[in-house]
Amino acid sequence: MAEDRKAQRATTNVLGMFPQSQIQEFKEAFSMMDADRDGFIGEADLKEIHMNLGRQPSQDEIKKMLSESPGQLNFTAFLTLFGEKMHGTDPETTLRQAFEQFDPERKGKLSEEYIKDLLQNMGDNFQEDEIRQVWKEAPIKGGMFDYDAFVTLIKRGNQDELAA
Length: 164
What we know:
Layout: H1 2-15, H2 20-33, H3 43-52, H4 59-67, H5 75-87, H6 92-100, E1 109-111, H7 112-121, H8 128-137, E2 140-141, E3 144-146, H9 147-156, H10 159-163
Antiparallel strand pairs: 1-3, 2-3
């Protein structure tokens, strides 16, 4: 049941990234690529589509393409990948690595005050009201900002709400 809500939430988030006409075009492209019609694009599907285009990709190329999806490549994951590429959002690993630059011990958490100082004084400086808005959703407990949970929140939505 929680998985159904998780899938529904992920679908809702990704569907908002595109106009309905573009989603339909992606659906048609996905259907063309899903040669075995099982609802997922797998190795055999990618090999077939490439062979239809006159290419014979290596097994490594196929695996590299599929590794871009965090799980099985269904239509929602397909849309998410295109959304990230077209709308310039970074993958989870890139976001975590950015936070890790400030966490040499790689604990996954940073002091709330340290993050606030970074937001106010580095790069595009945040105003107090912008920080308050981020803090409403930010996973902060005991004065520690959990950036692992924050990245998950950014990319997949509120996991607590999905589990409930």
